[in-house]
Amino acid sequence: MIPITDVSPDEGDLYAARKKIQPRSIKGRFNNVRWAMVWITQIVFYGLAWLPWNDRQAVLFHLVERKFYIFGIVLWPQDVLFLALLLIISALGLFLVTAVAGRVWCGYACPQSVYTEIFMWIERHIEGDRSARMKLDAAPMSARKLGLRAAKFGAWGALALWTGFTFVGYFTPIRELASEIASWSLGPWEAFWMFFYAAFTYVFAGHMREQVCKYMCPYARFQGVMFDPDTLIVSYDANRGEPRGNKKKAREGQVVGDCVDCDWCVQVCPTGIDIRNGLQYECIGCALCIDACDQVMDKVGRPRGLIAYTTERTLLAKKPAHEGWREVMAHILRPRVILYTSLLAFIVSGFAWALFTRTPVKMNVLRDRATLAREVEGGKIENVYRLRIMNTSEIARRYVLEVEGLPGAAIADLREIEVEAAGSRDIAARVQVDADALQPGSHEIYFNLQAVDAPDVRVHEKTSFLQPR
Predict the structure, then answer these.
(1) Any alpha helices (H) in 49-173, and if so which ranges?
(2) Is 411 left (phi over 0), alpha (psi -120 to 50) or beta?
């Protein structure tokens, strides 16, 4: 069974001062995976903002124009359904990953973990390894300490500012933003959000670190409901490791497990927990303790796997952590995972279908309330409408506007309408109908808008035509 440590509530002060954690650096396969994720996520984040696409930024959530540009797709406020679907897909994806592999998102891809790792890398290269940093923390202030701290905080600040600049560059064209900074003409909102996000990154990744995961992140709190006995967790094999101790120094007849009680698993943990105390909500599943333990097992000539990715069911059955593919598939193919996967596949399919089959033109129709229905020349009744035509494609287009639904209905003085790429145009349309052909009251009519160069690009909007009494 997973060992559970009884932690009695402290009846004293409810507030405990933070004990600074200086994690030990470690090499290993899981650390390599973590750094691979750091490189991938940061290349995408810092690089994508500068990627051009059709003479504009490839990914731009342009708040001023109220348009989202995602490569060849232009989304307007009317496309909020896609944003809602995207959020649902993200939530279901997180549920699925958590149900299968526990907190791998926290350990490998969460921005808090990624930036904390980068900030700690800077810290290690300026202040030294774990023991050097601990000595520096304990040392009184001196010129050397002041210089090292200034260099570290300066490097953190530069990275945080670049991160804030890049973040804002996804909402304001990044090249324009760079020009505004160079000319000292940065707008107040851009400046606020750039410095706010920079400060956010600096404080969270540089100073608060594991405190964010332990006390602020809601995901750590509700993840328990997504875990089950087959969810992948980082766990210590107490049956094999206990009682801890050094076999060479053990007394005759004393039984000693494989754990040599070196504490490396604790020293490398970015949240400072002891995985040997069992599953804890502070564990972010980074598996650095596995890398540390494997190195120690190699040195003492014992098999790896004392700390490993495993499941609660495996631990309860006292099976080895390393299982065959058949056992692994049995953990994965379970009702909860199948349900999440089916829902996710259904919604992703619907999202992709809706996105790639959507009509690249929209039209809003509003009857002009400032102009009453009136009689004009030729014995006709005229209603005026305000139309907004939105071209959501990446090419300029000409459209033909027609009206139908009433006998003899026609649009006066309007033939073709040209709208620039990813642009919109407001027009007034005067619809005229023979007065003798209608009874007084409201009648349904339809506006048809069709692209000249693409007959399948068309929209059909309903409105009403008023015949005065």
Answers:
(1) 80-101, 104, 111-127, 130-138, 143-168
(2) beta
| Contacts of the segment 26-31: beta carbons below 8 A, 24+ positions apart | 26/264, 26/268, 26/288, 26/291, 26/292, 26/295, 27/291, 27/295, 28/288, 28/290, 28/291, 28/292, 28/294, 28/295, 29/291, 30/286, 30/287, 30/288, 30/290, 30/291, 31/288, 31/291
389 near 417, Cβ under 8 Å? yes
Query: Which DSSP state fits 282?
Result: T
What is the secondary structure of 17-28 as a DSSP string?
PPPPP-PPP--S
Cross-strand bridge partners of residue 444: 464
3-class SS of residue 418: strand
Q: What is the pLDDT of residues 246-283, one digit of tens each?
A: 777 777 778 889 999 999 999 999 999 999 998 888 89
Distance CA 142, CA 323 (A): 54
Task: Choose among 241, 248, 246: nearest CA to 304.
Answer: 241
Whole-number pLDDT of residue 8: 55
Taking each helix axis from N to C end, the angle separating 143-168 and 174-182, rounded to the nearest 10 degrees, works out to 130
DSSP 8-state symbol, 77: G
What does residue 99 show for φ and ψ, rounded to 5 degrees? -65, -35
- Determine the length of the chain: 469
> If DSSP codes are grouped into helix, strand and coil, which group holds residue 219?
helix
Cis amide bond preceding 243, omega within 30: yes
- The residue written with tokens 């690089």 in the block is 47
Phi, psi of 416 (to 5 degrees): -120, 150
Mean of the pLDDT values across residues 401-406? 92
**pLDDT digits 0-9 by tens, 278-322:** 888 889 999 999 999 999 999 999 999 899 988 888 888 877 666
- Phi then psi for 398, rounded to 5 degrees? -110, 140
* 43 contact partners, CB below 8 Å, separation of at least 6: none
Output the pLDDT for position 101: 86
Under a CB-based contact definition with an 8 Å cutoff, are residues 422 and 396 in contact? no
Q: In degrees rounded to 5, what are phi and psi of residue 169?
A: -65, -10
